[in-house]
């Protein structure tokens, strides 16, 4: 009697949906796969291709390879992984509207203010791989909200906090942060300009550690 094939051998690779939209400067691909870790996701860019691969919770391997319609700048392209999806963000080389995501670029494209409204004042509808109409203003707002609410931990959370303080602070706050950080060798970060303006900020090593200055 023959043994039945294992579930791992018969399990089909699940169909993962991906969609895309564009702004004046970027093409954004969203891949709707959940609960992946960023370190497990591999994304490779060239000027005319993008490939994405990741192991799925089911044990199968997800792979997406695209020959894209127009050139991108690989060095200014990136991706991020959130609990609900993978988001691939590709920087356009030319500020033109893409008629499709894939292809040889032969379709007519015009320079366009993609973030503006159409002639009748309605929100423009951009080409995507989906037949469903999208409210891109709503999607952009949701993406920004998701980025703001994305949970950061450890050093990442601390760095984000400092960036927010620096970005939203006054000129005096920024001067205080710069002066205290530079003079203390990165061990002190003060936002009080009155406190640090008239004196040098001394090095303050973490508890239990001793600062030693090495002679050249």
Automatic annotation (TrEMBL):
One function term, GO molecular function aspect: protein-folding chaperone binding
Pfam families associated with the record: CS, SGS
A GO CC term attached to the entry: cytoplasm
Region called Disordered, residue ranges: 115-134
Annotated SGS domain residues: 125-216
Domain CS: 13-102
Entry-linked PANTHER family: PROTEIN SGT1 HOMOLOG
Official protein name in the record: Suppressor of G2 allele of SKP1
Protein species of origin: Cherax quadricarinatus
């Amino acid at each position: 009697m023959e043994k039945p094939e294992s579930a791992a051998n018969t399990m089909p690779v699940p169909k993962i949906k991906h969609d895309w939209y564009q702004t004046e400067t970027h093409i954004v691909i969203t891949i709707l796969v959940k609960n992946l870790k960023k370190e497990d996701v591999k994304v490779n860019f060239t000027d005319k291709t993008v490939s994405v691969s990741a192991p799925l919770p089911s044990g199968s391997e997800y792979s997406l390879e695209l020959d894209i319609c127009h050139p991108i700048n690989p060095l200014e392209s990136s991706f991020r992984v959130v609990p609900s999806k993978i988001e691939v963000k590709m920087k356009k080389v030319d500020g033109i509207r893409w008629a499709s995501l894939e292809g040889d670029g032969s379709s007519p494209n015009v320079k366009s203010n993609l973030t503006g409204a159409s002639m009748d004042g309605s929100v423009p509808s951009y080409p995507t791989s989906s037949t469903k109409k999208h409210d891109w203003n709503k999607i952009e707002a949701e993406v920004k909200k998701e980025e703001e609410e994305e949970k950061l931990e450890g050093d990442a959370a601390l760095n984000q906090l400092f960036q927010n303080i620096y970005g939203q602070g006054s000129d005096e706050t920024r001067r205080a942060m710069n002066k205290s950080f530079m003079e203390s060798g990165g061990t002190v970060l003060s936002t009080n300009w009155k406190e640090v303006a008239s004196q040098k900020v001394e090095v303050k090593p973490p508890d239990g550690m001793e600062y030693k200055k090495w002679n050249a």
